[in-house]
Fold this protein.
Amino acid sequence: MKNAIPIMSLALLAPLTTVTLKADTLALYTFETSQPATAGPFSPETGSGSALSYHSGATFPTTTYSSPAGNGSAHSFSANGWSVGDYYQFEVGTLGYSGITISFDQTSSNTGPRDYEVQYSTDGSSFTDYAAYSVLANASPNPAWNATTSSSIYTSTYDLSSVTGLNNQASVYFRLVDVDTVSANAGTVASAGTDRVDNFAITATAVPEPGTLSFALLGGLALFGLSMRRMRS
């Protein structure tokens, strides 16, 4: 029974020295306010940062930008005239944050690009490949994008918490890059083939201030001492 007192006291101490961390939305691009008609940049509807699209004209010289129905919302960011290496880009600051996660909805027309790569950067110039993925066609047998009904089959989520270089930065950048000429219907990308993105969200966890951790620890230690004194009396 001699070990009963410290074990019980430590059980009381543990929850009080735990700081609960909650993910915050650093930026959310829904395109409901910006309603793109150009390459951008555009501000997010929530948070701060910028979004844009880049088209080199290497294969198709003309690109039209528009804001058709999103995945369960009135607007998205859409473009045609896709060449290999063209991309959507999203920028946000992560100062005071770690554990970065991104999620987004994306689709192409039958002749829009299918194959993409998620890339990240801390300087907006040198980018690193993170994950390859394929986009579903906004056509039968898949449900069509519309302003009222969202479909999760078009949603992708990537946990970049292992990429610690993205933490606590003035700016980080994410790109969705077209990597080949294969279209969503497994043919070849055409000049009129479109791709659209919606609901691009960047979330992260705030890093606790040292004072917050110290306060929690001191509070826990105080309770520990009080519990010990009561049990010995």
In short: The two ends are 16 Å apart (CA to CA). The chain is about 15% helix and 30% strand. The CA atoms of residues 81 and 191 lie 5 Å apart.
